[in-house]
Amino acid sequence: MMAVQVFSEIIDPAQCPNGTTPCLGAYDSDIMAGLERVATVASQRPIAAANMSFGGDLSSSTCDGDPLKPIIDNLRSLRIGSVASAGNDYSGSSVTSPACISSAVSVGSSSPSDEVSFFSNIAPFLSLLAPGESITSSVPGGGYEEFSGTSMASPHVAGAFALLRQAVPSVTVSAGLNAVRQTGLPITDTRFIFGNGVITPRIRVFQALASLTPVTSPVPHTVSLTPSHARIGTALTVTVNGSGFNALSVVRWNGASRPTTALDTGTLQATIAATDLATVGTVPVTVFTPAPGGGTSTSLSFTIDPPPSLTISAATVAPGAAETVTLLNGFGGATDWLALAATGAPDSSYLQYVYVGTNVTTRTWTVTMPTTQGTYEFRLYPNNGYTRAATSPTVTVSTSLNPPPVLTSLSPTQGFAGGGAFTLTLNGNGFSPSSFAMWNGTTRPTTFVSATSLQAAITASDIASVGTASVSVQTPAPGGGTSAVVSFPIVSGPSLTVSSTQVTPGSQVTATLTGGAGGATDWLALAATSAPNTSYLQYVYVGAGVTTRTWTVNMPTTAGTYEFRLFLNNGYTRAATSPTVTVSTSVNGAPVISSLSPAQAFVGAGAFTLTVNGGGFTASSVVKWNGASRTTTYVSATSLQAAILASDVATIGTASVSVLTPPPGGGTSGALSFPIVAGPALAVSATSVAGGTPVTVTLTGGLGGSLDWIAFAASGAPDSSYLQYTYVGAGVTTRTWTVTMPLTAGSYEFRLYLNNGYSRAATSPAVSVNSSLNPVPTITSLSPPQAIVGTGAFTLTVGGNAFIASSVVKWNGANRATTYVGPTTLQAAITAADLASIGTATVSVQNPAPGGGTSGTLPFSIIAPPSLTVSATTVTGGASVTVTLTGGLGGPLDWLALAATGSPTTSYLQWTYVGSGVTNRTWTVTMPTTLGTYEFRLFQNNGYTLLATSPTVTVSQ
User: Fold this and answer.
1) What backbone torsions phi and psi does residue 128 show, to the nearest 5 degrees?
2) Which of 344, 377, 460, 761 gives a 20 to 30 Å CA spacing to 640?
3) Are 326 and 311 in contact (CB under 8 A)?
């Protein structure tokens, strides 16, 4: 592309629109010079077209007298087309110059919908139309904007000429223009007011190119259709997706070509007429591209759907009867709706309506028909409107017909097998005086209560056995019919059992209900056997939905016979009666046990006394251990004691404990479980030690009691006598405890006691303290704990216990000269060679045999010496100098001093503590005003042991 400047800034108001200056314009001489420039460059470059997006005066005929005609003709002879925009004056019969020159290629604007743009000039001699609305164009500054006008249309044609010239270098302007016009899409100017019916071709470059030179097309391939189905009789645009498409490709519908637009090489759009969808079924859709190349694609199926339909469940119904309409092949619109309306009523008039539902194409709708006699119909309307898409057959409502009965519920909802005759209430609608109840298909005497209620007499034989009866309602013709059935369960009747039939006055008896009806107001009563149903001593509600429950009561103190009764629904209709319970002073009560003490025992713990707590005990009651009697002591009516044998707790497991009271009355209580568990154990770290040696006891399997405790005692001492003790801890079942053995020779042991008492639960093996044995030493501390590498020999103090006169301190496993200070302190001579290199030494203590042994080790650090640096080595008197300590020992009493060089270590001018744990710090001081040399010193542990000295600081004038 080459830009040629032909415009000038015009300052003459007479030559500017509306007299507004300055404006942009072009003189004929400049335009002519620009076109001559094109002709000159054409000798060096293959130029195909010169675009002129500007215009002058309107002309309704060719203007070959225009001064630009000769240069345009000259360019045409050079096979260069002069493409000119037609102008934007809304004219249907004129174009601007130079577009009116007959040898120029004049261009008007077309819209995206292939209509003449409303602003475009057009004339019978116009050459071409090209897209000119909302065209994206570059603008100064590097951006883009949309513009409309014939000035946007003409560059399309200039570009098309360049494409044709590139494909066919020998093509002339006339041949190219003829190709573009002959293959263009004819567009008629039908604009309101301006249009004169002029027909002008809109360029189609690919078709023009194919007319000038063979274009080998690819084989088209189809992938999908959008949409892939439509309703019968619908006109639509079908998008064909695939590959290998071009402007020559045509969509074929059932083998016949349809108007096709190529959007890109993978998308075609075809216009399908309503007549193409005249029959329900499937249609093959293909794409055809003509030779050379090309071919026909494989076919895709397009489904033509049937129209929606509405069917009804009955054509004639009684007033108020139920009617069901069924929709098939609906549209699935979110606001499609069904209406019930009187036949002949306008579409905006309806009695009932319902939305079909989003994406729902098939549904049913059951309505209660009007009570007014007449004809009605169902209607389908799409999209919340009143355009009817389907109408059902007519439904006639006739008062001469009985309505069909509908049964919804029964009361009661079930019966007990073996029960007596009862009245069954049937609820629903559509009942009439001629309706009757059906029990398993057989009529039953029926009373008409209302159009929604019937009562039927059900016989005792109808509920003689467990099962399910079918209940329905039948109304005779005309109309009428039989309702759907509702099931009536016949279930096993409820029963009441008692825990004892003979008890003493005031004893507890438990009644057990099974198979209850579950009514919210069903209730149990205790009554004298001879009392009427309205008389009772105690009562309780069973509970809503509860069919099985127990109820424990204290029987009356008055001798006599009693029974439990079940009543339904807050009434006095008895549904079950328990066996008789006789209250007599001559019978023993039934025993009940509630707890055991202790609640468990340790395996192998030996014989013990078990306390059984409960009620109803007598002097003849016997405790049973796993079903076997044990020697029993009667304590009271609520407490027994039983002698449990050592063999009863010989193995881990669970025993069953119960109480038996012999007749008359009496019985066996329920059982309680008695766990026999593994006992706790105490192990010791040594069984023979020297006096003062630490020994560790380990508890396993403890009970975790918050007040359980371990004691250290002399063997044979009573449980209340001990030397040391500790609590185990709440919830703790495993723990260790280390104690220092007495110096007195003898036998000792550890003991576990429970709950702050003296009941011993475990004893450790004996620990023998032998005065002839040396103890095993332990070490706890070193002083000092570290030293500076390269310092001289020093004395190391070792703290611990069980030291003896023959104890030896070991340095990295080697003996060092040792001084015995006491049983908790030794001193060792550490040589200068021991501190020769940085590192960590190990220190331990060894006691010789007999007994004795080697302690654990403690580390001793050998560290780099600390250093002192100064911020200046020469200052004036009174100046500040900062000393920096690096690698200090961190002692809490280590200190820094400023002193005159050569002065003794006990002499200093200023000082400060370094700080506990501080190994690096700075200290800024004001130097003396006296001239001389000074230094900083680091001392250890509040003493005068010099650890480091700084460089000399000279104070001068």
Assistant:
1) -150, 160
2) 761
3) yes
* pLDDT classification of 690: cutoffs 50, 70, 90: confident
| Calpha distance 745→248 (Å, rounded) | 119
- Asked if residues 231 and 214 have their Cβ atoms less than 8 Å apart, the reply is no
Of 238, 230, 218, whose CA–CA distance to 297 is shortest? 218
Q: Report residue 104 CA to chain centroid gap.
A: 71
pLDDT tens digits along 356-393: 999 999 999 999 999 899 999 999 999 999 999 999 99
Q: Are strands 260-264 and 267-272 parallel, antiparallel or unpaired?
A: antiparallel
Q: pLDDT confidence of 646, banded at 50, 70, 90?
A: confident
Classify 326 as helix, strand or coil. strand
Which residues make Cβ contacts (< 8 Å) with residue 83, sequence separation at least 6?
49, 50, 51, 52, 104, 105, 107, 154, 155, 157, 158, 161
Distance (Å, whole) CA 590 – CA 612: 15
Q: Which residues contact 742 (CB under 8 A, 6 or more apart)?
A: 691, 692, 723, 748, 769
What is the distance of C-alpha 193 from the center of its chain?
A: 65
| Whole-number Å distance between alpha carbons of 328 and 306 | 9
Residue 489 has phi, psi (to 5 degrees) of -70, 135
The token pair at 18 is 């509306």
Q: What pLDDT does 849 receive?
A: 87
Nearest-CA neighbor of 115 among 179, 189, 180? 189
Q: At what angle do helices 173-183 and 150-167 cross, to 10 degrees?
A: 110
Domains in the chain: ranges and CATH:
8-212 (3.40.50.200), 221-305 (2.60.40.10), 309-397 (2.60.40.1930), 406-483 (2.60.40.10), 495-583 (2.20.130.20), 592-677 (2.60.40.10), 681-769 (2.60.40.2840), 778-863 (2.60.40.10), 867-956 (2.60.40.10)
What is the four-CA torsion angle of 88, 90, 94, 99, rounded to 10 degrees? 20
CA dist 746 and 473 (Å) reads: 101
Which pair of structure tokens corresponds to residue 102? 């007959």
Residues whose CB falls within 8 Å of the CB of residue 117, separated by 6 or more in sequence, listed in order: 108, 109, 110, 111, 132, 133, 148, 150
Q: Kindly write down the DSSP assignment for every residue of 95-130, as one continuous string.
A: EETTTTSTTSEEEEEE-TTSSB-TT--B-TT--EEE
